[in-house]
């Protein structure tokens, strides 16, 4: 072969390659690429997560990880868990056993984890890294292969943050999930103790994680409902809101209910004659009302009771606030199914202190028109209580009769709120929380 033929062959090959490359580039630029199509090794994927989790500019991590694995499942996982424990991190996982075990490990390190029962192990997972360089790592685990992709910048980050917020609201704290598993269907403490020991073995619970599960178990077993009662002006709403904050700090989900909205709706229906019986309620200047007999308020309690029943089997604590002179009769409206898993906080203050608070607060309802057919009434915890009611019906209550009542044996707690003393109130509420949890600390040796 002469040199000219050799060079022609080489140039022809190069030309063909260039033509094919040009066609490929042109096709690629016109074609929408298939996302999450490139498979990488598990180690490469985890190494990327670890690097991003150690970024000095990182402020927080949020993620939905259906197939989260415990630290024993790979050499990089302990380092990833340690990195997550050093930042503000929150994760939603599935209820698969391995995910629960990994979630329990993270909870033991102080990381917030929730469980979404509808998640499947092969669903997409993502980590949202917030900070100086916001980005998202999305992964599709296809059998044994990981197909991740990185999206950099605030725009994709905001989309996944919004999705995470929805997932977080729908999920249940892992401590409550494990506590509910220990409780099962039976209230027997010996059975609960054995189940708790089994959970400790199955999920290798650390001391910190086990203590958190016990706290949730205590409330879900004996205080799924906490009634906050007392006369108007005693400070029930303050106590309820502060207790909700304390339970939230323990990662318990809290629902708050009260009877005033139900009472107000009964009042409105009677005032505009939507009910055949329009008697019993009297309008008072300032957007308030009074009744001729406290028994007129019982239908509102029954409606409230039905609402509480919708939450009593969920892994959450429901705080229920109401004011009655006949506290015993009001509580008995809720029935055995609720009362058997309830605690009662009775808030006390002197008549002079209550009168002063009632006079100072008095926020009327706000009425807003929404379009052609909507009217919204916004009520306040600090609603007006008529002077006639405060000086006659609410002079005192029968809370003293609760203590000897069998249903409330060991379930009644008094909170003195005479002084506007936030530190003292916190101390008394901490005492209530400890009273609920203390009997359960000895369940597991």
Automatic annotation (TrEMBL):
<protein>
    <submittedName>
        <fullName>Uncharacterized protein</fullName>
    </submittedName>
</protein>
<dbReference type="Pfam" id="PF13671">
    <property type="entry name" value="AAA_33"/>
</dbReference>
<dbReference type="InterPro" id="IPR027417">
    <property type="entry name" value="P-loop_NTPase"/>
</dbReference>
């Amino acid at each position: 072969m002469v040199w000219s033929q050799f060079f022609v062959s080489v140039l022809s090959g190069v030309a063909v390659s260039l033509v094919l490359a040009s066609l490929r580039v042109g096709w690629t630029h016109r074609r929408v690429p298939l996302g999450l199509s490139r498979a990488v090794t598990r180690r490469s994927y985890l190494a990327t997560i670890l690097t991003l989790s150690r970024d000095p500019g990182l402020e927080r991590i949020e993620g939905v990880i259906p197939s989260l694995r415990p630290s024993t499942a790979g050499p990089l996982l302990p380092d990833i868990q340690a990195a997550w424990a050093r930042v503000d991190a929150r994760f939603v996982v599935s209820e698969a056993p391995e995910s629960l075990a990994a979630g329990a490990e993270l909870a033991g390190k102080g990381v917030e984890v929730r469980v979404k029962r509808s998640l499947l192990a092969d669903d997409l997972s993502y980590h949202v890294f917030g900070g100086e360089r916001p980005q998202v790592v999305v992964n599709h685990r296809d059998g044994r292969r990981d197909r991740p992709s990185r999206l950099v910048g605030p725009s994709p980050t905001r989309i996944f943050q919004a999705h995470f917020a929805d997932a977080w609201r729908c999920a249940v704290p892992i401590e409550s999930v494990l506590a509910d598993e220990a409780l099962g269907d039976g209230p027997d403490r010996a059975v609960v103790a054995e189940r708790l020991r089994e959970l400790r073995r199955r999920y290798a619970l650390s001391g910190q994680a086990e203590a958190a599960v016990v706290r949730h178990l205590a409330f879900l077993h004996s205080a799924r409902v906490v009634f906050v009662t007392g006369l108007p002006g005693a400070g029930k709403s303050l106590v309820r809101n502060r207790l909700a904050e304390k339970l939230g700090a323990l990662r318990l989900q809290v629902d708050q209910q009260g009877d005033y909205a139900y009472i107000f709706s009964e009042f409105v229906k009677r005032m505009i004659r939507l009910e055949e019986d329009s008697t019993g309620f009297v309008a008072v200047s300032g957007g308030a009302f009074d009744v001729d007999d406290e028994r007129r308020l019982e239908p509102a309690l029954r409606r409230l009771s039905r609402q509480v029943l919708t939450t009593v089997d969920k892994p959450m604590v429901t705080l229920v606030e109401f004011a009655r002179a006949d506290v015993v009769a009001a509580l008995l409206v809720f029935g055995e199914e609720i009362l058997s898993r309830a605690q009662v906080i009775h808030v006390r203050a002197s008549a002079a202190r209550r009168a002063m608070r009632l006079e100072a607060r008095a926020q009327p309802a706000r009425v807003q028109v929404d379009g052609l057919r909507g009217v919204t009434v916004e009520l306040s915890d600090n609603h007006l209580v008529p002077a006639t009611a405060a000086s006659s019906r609410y002079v005192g209550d029968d809370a003293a009769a609760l203590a000897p009542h069998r249903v409330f044996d060991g379930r009644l707690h008094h909170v003195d709120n005479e002084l506007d003393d936030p530190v003292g109130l916190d101390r008394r509420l901490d005492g209530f929380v400890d009273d609920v949890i203390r009997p359960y600390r000895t369940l597991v040796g």
